Amino acid sequence: MRKIVTSQEKEKKDRRNKILIGIILVILMVLSTAGYAFFSGERENGSSEKITYNGINFVRGDSGVWAFELQNIQFYTQYNPQETANIPSLILRSPGDYSGQPLFFLGQSGARREIEYNLRNIVTRSQEGCIPGYEKRCSNETPIKNCSTENIIVIEESNDTRITQEENCIFIKAPYENQTLVGDAFIFKLLGVQ
To answer: For the residues 28-50, what does the mean pLDDT come to?
Structure first.
């Protein structure tokens, strides 16, 4: 059997429950606000990693991309120059060699996207291009270019990791999973960072 409850006792119990729920909500609001303030401040102040390489400041933001500035132009790479320092590179090119010229690519990969994005302010345009001896890798619509007169970057999958130059052609060779790393090495060599 149930105990008979008077209206006063019922009101007292309801008031106590409302006060208890109110206190719990206030505590949750205070804790969530404090947690947000504590953790968001920590993320803003401690999330970016910074290094200095050859006098150039590199900052990695929340997205994981490294940013650096040269001659008032922002550049963005997946890797920093410390991570690419040991990649063999035999190139004698500078940004001036690409300035105001089209840039042709043979090969698709993260390296191409990285190079294309970072040289967008230097070259007039970038597009597919093919060179003699590589026709099997190209579609019928891809224009054949010449290393002696055109700027071409050839990205090849290889067990070897290196960057070489033949006339105006740059050859980036690396296992597929390391091609962006080697592409960043090319960017650093071209810009004089390394």
So the answer is: 64
**Residue 57 neighbours by CB under 8 Å, 6+ apart:** 50, 51, 68, 69
Task: Please give the C-alpha separations between residue 93 and each of 27, 138, 166, in angstroms, as whole numbers.
Answer: 63, 25, 11
Q: Would you give the end-to-end CA distance of the chain in angstroms?
A: 87
Instruction: Characterize the bridge pairing of strands 162-166 and 169-174.
Output: antiparallel
Q: What is the pLDDT of residue 47?
A: 62
- Pairing mode, if any, of strands 89-90 and 162-166? parallel
Q: Which residue has the tokens 């597919």?
A: 128
According to DSSP, residue 135 is labeled: G
pTM exceeds 0.85, yes or no: no
Sequence-distant (6+) residues with CB within 8 A of 159 are 175
pLDDT at residue 6 in the model: 80
Tokens describing residue 92:
């004698």
- Element housing 153 (H / E): strand 151-157
d(CA 5, CA 124): 86
For residues 110 and 174, the answer to whether their CB atoms sit within 8 Å is: no
pLDDT of the residue at 189: 95
Q: Which helix (H) or strand (E) holds 14?
A: helix 7-46
